[in-house]
Amino acid sequence: MPLPIHCDLPQRTDDLNRLVAQWGFVPVKQLPKEGLMLWLDAERLSLRDAGDKKQGAVSVDFAGGGSRHRRLHGGGRGEAVAKAVGARGQSTPTVLDATAGLGRDAFVLASIGCHVTMLERSPVAAALLQDGLNRAVMDSEIGDWISDRMTLIPGASSDLMSDWSGERPEVVYLDPMYPHRKKSAQVKKEMRLFQQLLGPDQDADALLAPALALATKRVVVKRPDYAPPLADKPSDAQIKTKTHRFDIYFC
């Protein structure tokens, strides 16, 4: 069911109308008392729980917050995701992120020079991603490369990969939503609403075969440390972190 979207700023009426026309959201003047909703304010589009005032909003911010801190103070090419896709030395492989979500890993890869095409089937997630990209291109620090290295294509990943007509990516990256077994502040603060919206990817196993057929070098699957391999297919290699692992399948 399309989510309600609220905006009480006359100067953003055109932006609201574009979101409604593109994604099918339902504009509302009165705030709902419960349930998930989208909020368009003067700065950004965000996802909120109308019935939980204590729960923070979810939005995509590539220029500031955690993304900026990770870009400036993270491991860069030393991060596990960078190693998993094969970004070593001067190598910056082309990456198809088939489960883009909020684009966090895609941004890390783009920040080290990879060209990342993001696929996202959820209209809400895609709208949040596009909003984040639109604001990022205006940023003085990252705006000169963000539009060149990050591209969003809305739609079902399995269909898009099976019917791919462009240049084949060297790497296909998969990070399907998986039920969290452990509670953490990060999950509660940043991902609870997103997980409530999307739920686990019940058809995640079906993504592996078209990914293997499309990638020219490798497929990388990010999994919680307790989760079985995707489609029960053992990987050729693994990179492990404290809470996750990256299963690598060579093509």
From TrEMBL:
Its EC number is 2.1.1.242. Gene3D superfamilies: Vaccinia Virus protein VP39. It comes from the Bacteria. The keyword NAD does not apply. InterPro entries: 16SrRNA_methylTrfase_J (IPR007536), SAM-dependent_MTases_sf (IPR029063). Keywords: Cytoplasm, Methyltransferase, rRNA processing, S-adenosyl-L-methionine, Transferase. One of its GO terms (molecular function) is methyltransferase activity. Pfam families: SAM_MT. It catalyses: guanosine(1516) in 16S rRNA + S-adenosyl-L-methionine = N(2)-methylguanosine(1516) in 16S rRNA + S-adenosyl-L-homocysteine + H(+). One of its GO terms (biological process) is methylation. S-adenosyl-L-methionine binds at R104, D105, E120, R121, D175. It is found in: Cytoplasm. The keyword rRNA processing applies. Belongs to the methyltransferase superfamily. RsmJ family. HAMAP family: 16SrRNA_methyltr_J. Specifically methylates the guanosine in position 1516 of 16S rRNA. This is Ribosomal RNA small subunit methyltransferase J. It comes from Corallincola platygyrae. The gene is rsmJ.
